[in-house]
Amino acid sequence: MKKKSIFYGWWIVVSCFVLMFVMMSIVSMVMGIFVIPVSAELNISRTQFSLYFTILSGVGLLISPAIGRSKMDLRVMTSLGVILCGICFMALGYCKNLIMFYIISVVMGIGFKICTNIPASILLANWFKEKSGTAVGIAFAGAGIGNMIFTPIANYLISVYGWRSAYVILGVLMMIITLPFTMFIIKNKPSDLGIVAYGERQHSRSAKDGGKEEVQGYTLSELMKTPFFWIIMFCMIVVNIVSCGINSHLPSYMQDIGHSATFAAFIVSSGSLMLTFGKVILGFMSDKLGGTSIVAISCAALTLSLVALMGSPVTILAIFAGLLHGFGTSFGSVGPPIITRQLFGEKDYSSVMSVVSMTSGIGMAIGAPFCGVIYDLTGEYTLSWIIFLIAMIGCTAWFLISLKSHEKRAAIIFTRDGYSKMG
């Protein structure tokens, strides 16, 4: 009896997991550990340092549509992105002034975007017609695990060797760990190996007499005329602003309110552990309950995290804040591909995904510097958390009311079967 081989798409999931584990965690999430030492040595404010996140996301916003339309081999694209990020991260260790820091951030923004969420989402959509939410959740969980592992590593490297050497070491690690997967394992689509996507045979059973199954969904131009599309986009932007704002300043905040650097790293790592579980849970839930459910759940988790965050001088509340924030933040990465695939269909997936993914870039561009400005003006982060809390309560209420209203009018009926039906 012939032994059944593992579907190659799961190796694509592993490769995307590694991309998130290394690139997403180090370039985007672990950078918060560097705020205090870099700001002190370069004599810059936290707002000025936080502009790194704005530049990184701003560049991503500009090139996202081009990535969605690009015909470049995804193996080449992701490998190039890894190399650019690795070299740029190493170069940060040699920065002498703020201008040099910003210039490197621009180049790194290009590399970061072409090796993380958009190409990973396209790969997973190509390889999975069923269990797409679960595949996305597993792959994107890598960022949380990476943050949990690399945050204490970065903290150790900074304390022992200094922040400059820490940048160089992490830059080298990026390329050593990730390039073997992007260069040798990633394949654009199943047909490259003469096979079909996971679940494609089941989806094709409805096609009769050799006819092709119609690709369900909507084009980007159709969606942009739909009010609920913009409501979803707005909610995702708010969630990402709050997520990125907290994530970028959480280590500094914990130290400012009296906790040690070690405890701050522990909070970040604990949140990353929950971030990991959150992505898998949200991915699984989206397959069972539909994409809109994960929007509501993530909004609720982030709202509760902000309440706990304001009581974080109390150790147990600090831990709860980190855990709830980690779970809520998991939506930022798994949300765009799941929302795009399940609610908007596959008809124009790459183009729609490139636009939906811009919400995370907008969130990063606004959230981190916003908190930095509030800190520089008031000397603390409390006002930021209050504003975020009000925004999350309003966002959650608007989303739920709008969803009920649209379902009642049958303007948009969202299903869990892979796309949304417009009436």
Spatial arrangement of strands, main beta sheet = 1-2
Q: Which regions contain 5 or more consecutive residues with pLDDT less than 50?
A: 205-210, 409-423
Integer-rounded radius of gyration: 21 Å
Spatial separation of the terminal alpha carbons: 51 Å
Output the number of helix runs.
17
Report the mean per-residue pLDDT as an integer.
86
Order of helices and strands: HHHHHHHHHHHHHHHHHEE
Approximate shape: globular
Describe the main β-sheet briefly: 2 strands, antiparallel
- The class by helix and strand makeup works out as mainly alpha
Strand content: under 5%
Helix content: over 70%
- Count the E strands: 2
Q: Layout of helices and strands, plus pairs?
A:
Blueprint: H1 9-29, H2 35-42, H3 46-69, H4 74-92, H5 98-113, H6 117-127, H7 132-161, H8 163-184, H9 200-204, H10 220-223, H11 227-256, H12 261-289, H13 291-309, H14 315-344, H15 349-356, H16 358-378, H17 382-409, E1 412-414, E2 420-422
Helix pairs in contact: 1-6, 1-7, 1-8, 2-3, 3-5, 3-15, 3-16, 4-5, 4-8, 6-7, 6-15, 7-8, 7-12, 7-14, 11-12, 11-13, 11-14, 11-16, 11-17, 12-13, 12-14, 13-14, 13-17, 14-15
